[in-house]
Design brief:
- The strands form three sheets. Strands 2-3-5-6-8-10 form a six-stranded mixed sheet, with no helix packed on it.
- The longest helix is centred in the N-terminal third of the chain and has 22 residues.
- A hairpin with a 6-residue loop joins β2 and β3.
- Helix content is about 20%, strand content about 15%.
- It has about 190 residues and is an alpha/beta fold.
Length: about 190
Amino acid sequence: MSCYSLKLFYALLLLLLHAAVSILGFNSLPNSVEIKCIEAERQALLNFKHGLIDDYGILSTWRDDDRSRDCCKWKGIQCNNQTGHVETLHLRGQDTQYLSGAINISSLIALQNIEHLDLSYNWFGGSHIPELMGSFTNLRYLNLSASSFGGSIPSDIGKLTHLLSLDLGKNVYLHGQIPYQLGNLSQLRMQSG
């Protein structure tokens, strides 16, 4: 076989290999690997959704079907692009579109890497801010403002020592004293009340 024929054979082999890789959906380039969400975190988000009333389709992308298995692509969710862990849950409502019902924070315990949680401007009808909120020790941002929370501010929020921003304002049903444990939040840069 001549040198030219060998080069042509090699080129055709590479072309066929590249086509096969594309057709089968494989990609050998490590920096183009798509990271998908962690299954336990996806299930936790679906469980969280079940307690909510979503009359406005805010959570319409949160489905348990084959076409939307990657929760990192759901509206309001951002994941770490290297680990696939959910880092942001941004479900801020609006004047005319909001979530209501009971929030089940215990269903989100699997989201141990969450850093940003925004449930502001929703209607939780006097529900108490769950004590378990203090379990999300990686939180940097927590916004529960204007969501009709009632009761007292849980002292466990004082365990969120990495918080940079805390907003509990415009919750007219909150009452009682501010827990002294919130004094542990020494990194706060923005606090509203």
